[in-house]
Each structure stands twice: as C-alpha cells, then as structure tokens.
Amino acid sequence: MNLIIVESPTKARTLSRFLGKDYSLEATYGHIKDLPKSTLGVDVEHNFKPEHVVVEKREKEIKRLREQATKADKIYLATDPDREGEAIAKHVEEVIRGQEPEVNKKTKSKLKPLSSNLLIRRIVFHEITKEALEEAIEHPRSVDKNLVNAQIARRVLDRLVGYKLSPLLWKKVRRGLSAGRVQTVTVRLIVEREREIAAFKQEEYWEIYCNLKTQISKLKTEEFIVKLIKFDDKRAEIKNKKEAGIVVFDLEKSDYKIADVIKKEIRKNPYPPFTTSTMAQAAARLYHWSSKKTMSVAQSLYEQGLITYHRTDSTYLAQTAVDKVRKFIEKEYGGQYLPDKARFYKVRSKVAQEAHEAIRPTNIGMTNDKFQMTNGRFVSDAKVLYGLIWKKFVACQMVDSIFDETVINVQAKTTPEVKDLPTSRVYVLRASGQVMKFDGWRKVIPLSKYEEPGLPMVGKDEALDLVKVLSEQKFTEPPPRYNEASLIKTLEKLGIGRPSTYAPTISTIQVRQYVEKDEGKFKPTPVGLTVNDFLIGNFESIFDYQFTAQMEDDLDNVAKGNRKWQEMMGEFYSPFEKKLESVEKKAKRVEIPVEKLGKKCPKCKDGELVVRVGRFGKFVSCSRFPDCDYKEKYLEKIGMKCPDCKKGDVIVKTTKRRRKFYGCSSYPTCKWASWNKPEIKGATEKDKEIKKKTLSKLYAPCND
DNA sequence: CAGTGAGCGAGCTTCCGCTTGACTT
User: Fold this and answer.
1) For residues A569 and A153, is the Cβ–Cβ distance under 8 A?
2) A165-221 pLDDT, tens per residue?
C-alpha cells in the first residue's frame, strides 16, 4: 500500500481520482507542528533552538496519519513544493516515526507498529494532473534539510520580533497590542500615506479647451474639442485665473489650423491570469468585496473542484490546461483569436515561490452560463467570481487587441490685430483617441466604457473655425488613501506577506484598532499612530520596507546550504536584543492621545469628557477614569441634517457586526438610515459635463 | 460570507504562514 500525504483535503480528493486502489491519500490541513502558542519557544541562549510542539487543532489529523502509516509500505510526502511545505513534510515524517514524546505517550502504545521495510520519501509537483504526479513519483528524494532550515529561520525570526515587541508595547503603550514584521509595516504604509495627505499643499491650475469646427462638406460642419498642451514650445502650465484669462483672450483672437495628424497602431496584450493578489484587487475594484470575502468565495469554488488553488503568487499554467484552452478559443472564437504560440507569463514578484499554478478554471468547458454550484453558501457570488476567473484565463491565451490611435495637433496663432501683446504667441492644442479595430482578447473581456472618440477626418494645414474657448479651474490632488486592493498590491510589490496572509493581516490591523476603514479607505487611528511612531522610532531597521526582501535573500542562502541559519539569526538578534534592553529601560510609557470634548464631567464635576475606544467602538468617558466611571454614548455627527426628517443630525452608527452606517439622531422617531454617506448634490455636475467632453480620456482603463 | 439601530467597554494580551471550518465581537 502507498500513502500520499498532501496539505489540502481538496487536493487529496482530486488526486485520489487519478490513482488506483493501491494508493491512499491523507491531508495534513496545513502545519501540524509549530512553536508553542503561549511561550517564546526559542532558546536564544542556545543557538536559537526552537521548541516544536504538535498543533492542538491538528491532533485528529496526526492520529489519522499514524493509523494510515501503519498500513503502508511506501509513504510519499507530497506537501507543497516550497519552504513551508518542506517543513510540513519533515514534521509529518517525525510524527509518523513517533519521534515526539507527546504523541508517543498518547497514541503510540495503541498503534500497530510501522512496516519494517517502510520507505518515507519526499515528492514535489507543480500541477495537479495524473502525469505530473506520476512524474513526481518517479523522482522521489529525501526531505531537504537546508530548505527546512530556511523555514525554521523565517519562523524563529517572526516569533522573536512578534513575541519580544508585543510585550514591550503592553508595557509602554497599552495591553493587548501587537507588533510583527508584516503587520507593523502594513500599518506604517497607512500612517505614512496619511501624513503625506496631511502635508499635501493643494495647488490651483487651469485647463483650457477649444471647441473647434471643421467644414466637412459644403453644407455640413463638425465640431470637436481640443485641449491646450503647449504655448511657444513650452508645456502649458496655467496657475491661476489671471493667466487663464490672458490665454483665453489670446485664443479667442487666434487663427486655427491643423498642425499634424499622427496615426499609429497600438497593440495591447492581455493581462496575466489571476494570482491571489490580482484576484483580490479585481474583486475589490469591481464589486467592492473585502479580501476576506473574495477568499471565502474562492475557497468554495476550490472545494467544488471548479478552480485551481486560490492562494498562490504564481502565474504559471499547466501545459494541459493551456492546450485545452487553445482548442477552446479556436473552436469558440475562430483561429484569428488564437496566437501561434501559447503565452507565458513571468512571475512578477521576486519572492514568489512557485508552489502552485495561477488561479484558473479546472474545466474550460464550464462556461458561466452552464455554471452551477451544487451547494455552498455563496451561490450567486461564486458565479460572479467564477466568471471573472474564467474570462481572465481564456483572455490570457488570446491574441492582442488592436487599436488605431489618432492624435490631432492644432496650432493656434494670435491674429495680427491683437495689438496689446508683446509678440504673437503660438499655441498647440490636441485631441486624441483610439478606435478598436480588432477586439482580440477584448472579445472575452470587453472594454467597460468604450466610446468611439468621434474625431473628424482632417488633413494637415486645414483651417478651422473657433466655436468657443472653455477654461476650467482644477486643483492638484493628494495621493489617495489605501483601500484593500491598493494595500495588497503594495504589500506584494514589497514582498511582504504571502497569499495566505493578505486577508488575515488586513483583519488583524483592524481588530487591534490600528487602522479603520472609512468608506472603504484605510485611516490610522490614534492608537495606530502612537504605536507606529514608537516602533519606527525605536526599531526602524526591522520595519524598513526593505527588511523582508533582505531576509528573503538570507533565507535563500540558507536554503542553498551556503549559510547556517543560526548565524543569520545571530546577526539579526544581537543588535535587536541590545535595542530591546535599552528601550525597555529608557523609554517612557507613551500616552495615546484622546479626543477631548471640551466639557466637564457631569458626575464628578472635576474631570473632562473624552472619547475613548473600547472593544465595541467609541464611547464617551470621564478623563479621571478609574477614579470616576462616568460614561455615555458617543454620537459622531457629520455636520448634516437628516435628509428625511430634516430635524435630526446625520450620525455615524455601527451594526451588531461592526459595519458602519449612517442614521438619524432622532431615531426611533425618524427611521432614516443609509449605508452610504448622503451626498451634497449639485457641486459636481458641471465637472462631469466637462470631463465627458474631454477627448483625452474617452474610456476608462479596464483591468478586469 | 449576509448583515440597518441593545449596551457593553477602559488590566494578562502577542508573531507569520500553512490549512479549513465556524456562529463571534
């Protein structure tokens, strides 16, 4: 009997379909051994010796593994082909051979002995196909000690950072706080962005457009709009109303002609197939899903066998899947949509570990109209996400979409009658647009807002008539706050965190109340700012954006056997330990700023009312707590009257599930409620109108 | 995950990365 051990039970089920009766499959459900939860578990005095214990939740799996092992002659450790998978493989072997006391005590005596000629071997494969598995079984090896050491180093370093710094925060800031290589940097990104926004100085600028007319026949004229881009060969930068007025004055007294018309063909590649990160970004942008939700929906698709594994950083595609989709494209859309050769996508991230494939449908014939989930709780959401994954995958193996781009440059010269000007001025104005002439992969993922640019047919030197000059006041905008999509994108780019941790990390920093989501955007809280400044101020090097990248380089060397992991840890730990000691001794406890309401406490008449944040959100309390325990509800007004009853104020409230919504302060008399912030109407209508007329951006880029 | 309305609350906690289930703050 042969036993194959993998990490995911779904993977086990899929593989069992390929294999005959002489193979059985078991899943570990992730790590089965780890450092203990309630102690450090690292002996820093003795070369960082880690203490690995059985993960409590996995005792059932371990028991089953051992039982199955007694029936086997050959065991294949087929955990994922990466650092973590190698460590799991080692732990499985230890557990099966009964090398840990806790397992021995509880279960060993009850179990039958292992087969005397038992072979335990490590195998790896990158795609879940019969061929890949058979190939892997042909080339078994033993567990790679160096790769396991790299995992130990990663684990120990994270444990030391997290379990040394968190208690320091309890002492110096507040109980229950936490710090870590990943979460602290994530908060740092949000804090620094917020400060950039606060420091941002808005600058005024103006954009100028001309509505021009061309004679297309004796009876017909056509109007189009051009945007000012240059004057006297310099980029047109118009800073205020006065400057804009001068330009408008000039343009109203100018002669217009076509300077040139440039046409070129533009080919656009399809996007790579989804990874965890890009899938989460797409679902966030298109449907405003949280990464947690996207991952849950993807999990249900994976469990139904509809998609490949959803926690991956790889864009690798199995050859068999590519062959099938190529046949599908040819049959369904025709040969002109099929490239000569299959497309390959390079992995973008340096730290990608190539353990899994890209996220793709397992059966390309399962089109969205045939799609049906037999069970699960996300039936309609699953269909939506599946459609996205399906389209992305099919499109990624189709030919380029082709556009004709036209750029019309118009020259405006002030007429000689304008006498007040020192010299005559030459302006360049431009209209541009792209027309799709062959859809290619856009057949499957159509452009979201495609409009024909509607440029006139004009020739060089053709004279034009001015209809109207339009000027528009604009202001430069600060960088945007992060949302889940842009945060994940940034983390991935920095190599911080893994596909399995993006969603949990985003949850953690919110549960700790370091950041909060406001209309989908992340803002730091006073706690977040205080903790960030404390940690960055004292431990800059660990939370440097480059730290993880450097760590990965070191781990690579450990994995290659070029370096001892204990040596790497020593280099990290000795300066860190010194710093810890000095901060422990010298740093004062820092106060988290509280928002003051500027009112005396009605109970003790001595303290002041302040806003505090408890487990369930904000509340008002006396500044003299715990001497005075006065408290009341916190009402967050947004400075607007209720749009329904017009009497109460609009206030921010939260549901039982902590979701934010807007309500009326005179509830329950007035029952008005809304998920979205009520908008002040009128202000943006004009903006939209002008934007619509601008030819420079006729359609929004569509990345879905 | 879907989720629209009480009143609680501020002192024994924490990391990252694998994997699923599970009614909760």
Assistant:
1) yes
2) 999 999 999 989 999 999 999 999 999 999 999 999 999 999 999 999 998 788 888
Which nucleotides along chain B are within 7 A of a protein C-beta? 1-22, 24-25
**Residue A628 CA to B20 C1' — how many Å?**
46
CA quadruple A65, A68, A70, A74: dihedral positive or negative? negative
Q: Is A408 in contact with A458 (CB distance < 8 Å)?
A: yes
Q: Which CATH number fits the domain that encloses residue A509?
A: 1.10.460.10
Q: Would the Cβ of A7 be found within 7 angstroms of any atom in strand B?
A: yes
A291 CB below 7 A from strand B atoms = no
Q: Smallest Cα–Cα separation from A500: which of A509, A492, A512? A: A492
- For residues A428 and A409, the answer to whether their CB atoms sit within 8 Å is yes
Nearest-CA residue relative to C1' of B11: A175
Judge whether A694 lies within some domain.
no
Q: Is residue A347 part of a domain?
A: yes
pLDDT for the residue numbered A495: 93
Q: Please identify residues in chain A, positions 514-573, with a C-beta within 7 angstroms of any atom of strand B.
A: none
Provide the number of structural domains found in chain A. 5
Domain-located, residue A50:
yes
Q: Which of A550, A569, A586 is the last residue of a domain?
A: A586
Nearest to A166 by CA among A56, A292, A43, A37: A37
The Cα A500–Cα A493 span in angstroms is 16
Within A300-416, strands assigned E span: 401-414
A509 contact partners, CB below 8 Å, separation of at least 6: A183, A186, A187, A190, A515, A528
Residue positions of A annotated with a catalytic role? 309
Which residues have a Cβ under 8 Å from the Cβ of A596 and sit 6 or more positions away? A608, A609, A610, A611, A623
CA closest to B24 C1', residue: A657
Closest to A580 (Cα-Cα) out of A172, A45, A37, A156: A172
Q: Is A626 helix (H, G, I), strand (E, B) or coil?
A: coil
Residues with Cβ within 8 Å of residue A59, at least 6 apart in sequence? none
| CA distances, A365 to each of A264, A331, A373, A391, A395 (Å) | 37, 11, 15, 12, 14
Given a contact cutoff of 8 angstroms between Cβ atoms, the answer to whether A91 and A152 are in contact is no
Query: How would residue A353 be classed by pLDDT, with cut points 50, 70 and 90?
Result: low
Provide the whole-model pTM: 0.85
The answer to whether the bond into A668 is cis (omega within 30° of 0) is yes
- Structural domain contains residue A686: no
State the pairing for strand pair A53-54/A74-77: unpaired
Q: Is the CB of A376 under 7 A from strand B?
A: no
**Strand B closer than 7 A to residue A357 Cβ:** no
The one-letter code for the residue type at A200 is F
Spatial distance between the Cα atoms of A152 and A39, rounded to a whole number of angstroms: 17
Q: Taking the C1' atom of B18, which residue's CA lies nearest? A: A30
A682, A683, A686, A691 alpha-carbon torsion, rounded to 10° = -120
* CB burial readout A50-68, b (16+ within 10 A) else e: bebbbbeebeebbbebbeb
Instruction: Please tell me the predicted confidence (pLDDT) of residue A42.
Output: 97
Tens digit of pLDDT for each residue in A83-142? Answer: 999 999 999 999 999 866 555 455 555 667 888 889 999 999 888 888 889 999 999 999
Which residues of A in 602-641 have their CB below 7 Å from strand B's atoms? 612-619, 621-622, 625, 629, 631, 633-634
Which of A638, A605, A606, A602 has the alpha carbon at shortest distance from A620?
A: A602
CATH number of residue A423's parent domain: 2.70.20.10
- pLDDT tens profile A209-235: 999 999 878 888 889 999 999 988 889
Rounded CA separation A651/A668 (Å)? 13
Q: Residue A442 belongs to what domain range?
A: 204-269+401-475
